[in-house]
Design goal:
Length: 401
């Protein structure tokens, strides 16, 4: 009996190994890179998503269209609405991303994506894979970059979460070996670790930051996290001006909320699942997951999104109009930076800080105790248009120092 079970499991494991060894070979080949300065036209695809996504991504799109209106008029920038990335369409086609939708996505250079519903075992939807995870894998968006800033507390963190490996790459391919035994997999490769750790080190170097913290649990998860840690140590030798230290994920979650130590951390790099968890914690400290944006960067394509989900509960309770659009607007500013529009991005970021951290004339609470997303966007627009924006922002920041 158990021989039969083992034989069956071996077959499955063999298929997984074949696929993963193939992925490693693909990783070894250099791939096409997008150089935005060489493009005649930059195509921005917008997927609105599900739940509150339908509302907050439209708010973010309106901000982008507003600040890019001249370049849209001249044809330098083009928006493309991609309507098919909804849970209804994905469930109907039983695909995480239907083929025609993926083609549309691939025809763009960058994507702004609203949160999408991820089916869970036992809910009303077929158990298809998360659209985020599928998109990150299909477009090889290997770096998930999540900044969190709390100027009042001297916190300026940038998380580099590995985005295509770890527990996620085979997240839908674990299996029940027998009636009682379930197995999932964690995968870490030399190439996958190297590219994310190098990106974090380069970011630190280019921004005069002298410390990069590597987060693992390599004392227990010895093989996969052990490899991540070894790669970090190897690369650190190429960056003598940067102190690379390793912290375990458990104590890291504690240190993030330690007021005496937390501002010492600057750039943090980690495998996929640790990054998922740690960045929600960090975003909560900044004012909630609704305030944080996330960049999913690959060599050819990139995708920008909120760090949170589609909040079906808010929709059910009729609170979707009160959802905070700042996460998606922050993601839009990251998109602008990525395509080389730093000045416009900076303007949006300063306006977000004036509204959310300094002036706070209007607040979003996610309920009718605060303003709606639309009202908040109007407030934001008034700061984007304000010729005194930079002066006011600088004076607020100076007050903190
Ligand atoms: C995120 C989200 C996703 C993840 C979910 C929706 C699959 O939590 O982007 O952090 O786990 O990566
Ligand atoms: Mg998450």
């Amino acid at each position: 009996m158990s021989k039969k079970i083992i034989e069956k499991a071996k077959e499955k494991f063999e298929a997984i190994l074949t696929e993963q060894l193939g992925r490693v070979e693909a990783l070894k080949k250099s791939c096409e890179k997008t150089d935005f300065t060489l493009l005649d036209q930059i195509k921005i695809g917008v997927c609105w998503g599900d739940g509150i996504g339908k509302i907050i991504s439209k708010h973010a799109q309106s901000v982008l269209e507003y600040v890019l209106k001249d370049e849209v008029a001249s044809g330098k920038i083009k928006f493309k609405d991609i309507a098919g990335l909804t849970i209804e369409n994905r469930a109907k086609q039983k695909k995480a991303i239907p083929d025609d939708v993926l083609e549309e996505i691939k025809s763009c250079h960058v994507i702004l994506k609203g949160p999408t519903t991820t089916p869970q075992t036992g809910d009303e939807w077929p158990n298809i894979e998360s659209a985020n995870v599928a998109m990150r894998r299909s477009l090889d968006l290997y770096a998930n970059v999540r900044p969190v800033k709390i100027p009042q507390e001297g916190i300026d963190w940038c998380f580099f979460r590995e985005n295509t490996e770890g527990e996620y790459v085979l997240g839908s391919k674990g299996f029940d070996v027998s009636d009682d035994l379930s197995i999932d997999f964690k995968v870490i490769t030399e190439q996958g670790s190297e590219r994310i750790i190098r990106m974090a080190l380069e970011y630190a170097k280019n921004n005069d930051i002298d410390r990069v913290t590597v987060i693992t649990k390599s004392n227990v998860v010895k093989t996969t996290d052990g490899r991540f840690s070894k790669v970090a140590k190897r690369l650190a030798k190429e960056y003598p001006g940067i102190k690379v230290d390793e912290w375990y994920i458990d104590i890291m979650t504690a240190k993030l909320i330690d007021p005496a130590r937390r501002q010492e951390f600057k750039v943090m790099v980690m495998p996929n699942l640790y990054g998922d968890i740690l960045t929600d914690e960090a975003a909560q400290m900044q004012g909630g997951v609704g305030t944080a944006g996330s960049a999913n960067i690959g060599d050819k394509w990139s995708m920008f999104e909120a760090i949170h989900g589609s909040a079906p509960r808010m929709v059910k309770e009729g609170r979707d109009i009160y959802a905070d659009p700042c996460s998606m607007i922050r993601a839009s500013a990251m998109l602008l930076r990525h395509i080389g529009r730093q000045k416009i991005a900076e303007k949006i970021e300063m306006a977000l800080e004036m509204c959310g951290q300094f002036e706070k004339k209007m607040v979003i609470t996610g309920r009718d105790t605060g303003v709606t997303g639309e009202e908040y966007c109007k407030y934001l627009f008034s700061w984007i248009d304000n010729p005194e924006l930079k002066v006011c922002w600088e004076s607020e920041v100076n007050k903190l120092n």
